[in-house]
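Render Choline transporter-like protein in 3D.
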Amino acid sequence: MDRNEENYYGKYGEPRKFDPKFRGPIHNRHCTDIICCVIFIVVILGYIALGVVAWVHGDPRKVVYPTDSYGQFCGQRDTLNENKTILFYFNILKCASPVVLINLQCPTTQLCVSKCPDRFATYIDVLASYRYRPDQWNYFRQFCKPGFNNPRKSVAQVLRDEDCPSMIVPSRPFLKRCFPDFSTKNGVLTVANQTTFKDGRGKTRNVTDLREAANGINNVLDARSVGMKIFEDYAISWYWILIGLFIAMLLSLLFLVLLRFTAGVLFWIFIFGVIGIIGYGIWHCYWEYDHLKGIPGSDLTVYDIGFQTDFKVYLQLRQTWLAFMIILCGVEVIIILMLIFLRNRIRIAIALLKEGSRAIGYIMSTLFYPIVTFLLIAICISYWAVTAVFLATSGEPVYKVMANQTLCKYANLTCDPETFNMTNVTKLCPGAQCTFAFYGGESLYHKYIFIFQLANAFVFLWLVNFAIALGQCTLAGAFASYYWAYRKPADIPLWPLFSSFGRAIRYHTGSLAFGALILAIVQLIRVILEYLDHKLKGTQNSFTRFLLCCLKCCFWCLEKFLKFINRNAYIMIAIYGKNFCTSAKDAFFLLMRNVVRVAVLDKVTDFLLFLGKILVAGGVGVLAFFFFTQRIPVFAQEVPVLNYYWVPLLTVIIGSYLVAHGFFSVYAMCVDTLFLCFCEDLERNDGSTAKPYFMSASLHRILGKKKLSPKKA
């Protein structure tokens, strides 16, 4: 097969249409994947409708405000509970954990109060002193059911009907709920400096009995205190954090500019450093092997001593060091052989990295496009979160029978609080009450709320992947405009980034949505598998756990593969304007025809960009550490007084890494686009006057082809 035939058919024999007038991204395009585009638009409209319906039925106050046993919000305006903003539990000992309390599932009466109790008291003691100290009764009565003022009612009936709590303990509000005011005194758990209390039923109990009901509350309260200190640190150091992130941005830009001159130097320094380290390892293994010669027991084999938990035992054997030396020698030989046989491809990869730095230098606006992607994703996340909250709070109050007797057959059955006292439940189950349980409903809408939540999550994933796809296609179109400019930079079109963005939106929304849809389906399956794995974590079925593990691994690999294919498909869409499937197929076969170059370029790029991220984040982190610890004398007086200096320090380090990642993601997209254009250039052209190369002179020299035809100015 001659060169012209290869340009037409390709090396694997698949047909290719050769266009001698091809000059980069095609401008005379047509809309692609129209059906998917229409479906995508319809789904977005449906998503908006879902949000409106959720907004109509939902009520976020159900999340913000606690709800009492009558389904009324604590602290809601224009209600009897307007000044009662805190939820009080009649018998907190019935609550198993804080999670139960927060979810309003504690099997005891819950009442809205204006403040939490500040003293120990029992209903029996208060009733006994009613005639002599009515003030105690008036104080205790505010924690009884509204309207209850009958001290003559028998204690047994009051406690059975839960008209009043049997006891109150000193508490403080947390998450708008009253929790025991725990503290420690000399290592002993106390409540209001007491270690015991009366439970109101004739028993004296230790305050440790409250621990299970309020397990973890102290830790959470301490976390709240730490959170306030962290907030204070952010409030007084935010501008220094912004300065650190600005420095990170400048260092990222500087690193990208210097890659044009230092990409090869950095890579070869790393490679020879690895070779040197492995060489030292070989010498050290030989030295240990020779040093152990003649020492008793060193000539034993690993098989002789069997399995040992102490790894140092194996280091006393010559056979161990001989095995290490052989392994390191093998690795050393493999690396050297790879460098010898892949040296030309490594040079091409480095040249493409330098070319990418040059391309970004001509189209600087691309460095700031990640801000657009970030804003789009932020909008998607916000809409998804708000819709999820409204869907979760779309139900009507559901009341259930709460019985003190464990054998009551009506327990946990739904009930109507208005007619509950007229039923036989109170007679068959003395003390049973109809109390608020949760929000739900029996209507068609309420039955399908779970389906709506799944749809909300799926469309969210689809939109996020579309935003990422739009960014990749836009950047690919801009950098392809640079590569296919015959005279650089004179032939680079005006505003290449904005032109590429317009083409992607106008012609290829359907194709981008198609690729994002495939990825969203796989990601939703992964989310479902993670949910099933979480639910089945306690099961003893080994086969089920193994099957789930295999499925999770397979879909993780599938997602990575699809991201790789989609990324290159978007590049081909940006260049040729074809539909998604055709572009994905063309990109796949083009990469397979250059699979070694792909592997080399991918690893070289990953290494240099990872090195850049570490240098930027590490450099700014070290500078921030010296600044916030007052080790820079010039700025010692400017350092704010902090509770935890690591708060702004970690923020600067993580933020610097993310800033560098944002800039370098543009660079990685640039290199990938230039590589595909480079492969297309090699297959379409031969360097002759009729078919000149569009690659740079440095790439052409590395290929060893005949000289580039002169480019007319």
